Amino acid sequence: MSRLDALVIGAGPAGLRAAEVLASTGRRVRVCDQMPSAGRKFLVAGRGGLNLTHGEPVENFPARYGGADAARWQDLLADFGPAELRAWAASLGVETYVGTSGRVFPRGQQAAQLLRAWRARLDALGVAWAFGWRLAALEHNPAGGWLARGPDGGEFRAPAVVLALGGASWPQ
User: Fold this and answer.
1) Going by C-beta distance under 8 Å and a sequence separation of 6 or more, which residues neighbour residue 130?
2) Nearest to residue 122, comparing CAs of 38, 20, 17?
3) pLDDT tens digits for 115-161?
4) Closest CA to 77 of 67, 64, 89, 90
5) I need a surface site. Which of 60, 70, 97, 165 has the fewest CB within 10 A?
6) How far apart are CA 125 and CA 28, in angstroms?
7) Contact indicator for 6, 24 with CB cutoff of 8 Å
8) Which residues contact 147 (CB under 8 A, 6 or more apart)?
9) Helix (H) or strand (E) holding 147
10) What is the DSSP letter of 50?
11) Would you tell me the crossing angle of helices 13-23 and 111-124 to the nearest 10 degrees?
């Protein structure tokens, strides 16, 4: 088993972005997912056109969430808002446009094109993959680090673990 700096569990957009940020700083990262490939639900969501974000000014976003959450969203979007997301897509070679609804789509509205370019970037950064691997247990070692075990006995150790388990909200 190779030494890891971080283990990302979940290969959807949140997990892929976490892996990209970590790997771009030189960390050794492995992404695990129970599905046979990355971004499965991302591809399903993109069947009717992949809505990446909204084209309105970032200052307007927090009002969409209201209440106490508005300030939290303002902080979260300060460094990576709609303009930065569009620049990120362009850095992958994917042109975007603002539709009549104000939503931002990749040109051609193809989720697969964006996902392929993203996977290529992650591969170039040295991200390792473990598909068909399901998390069964996660244990913290008091001396530091984490042990993630699969039901078949496969395990990974890393000092940091990112749980990006968003898929349960949409079982298709």
Assistant:
1) 30, 31, 32, 33, 154, 156
2) 20
3) 999 999 999 999 999 999 999 999 998 878 999 999 888 899 999 99
4) 64
5) 60
6) 9
7) no
8) 137, 138, 139, 141, 155, 156, 157
9) strand 146-149
10) -
11) 30
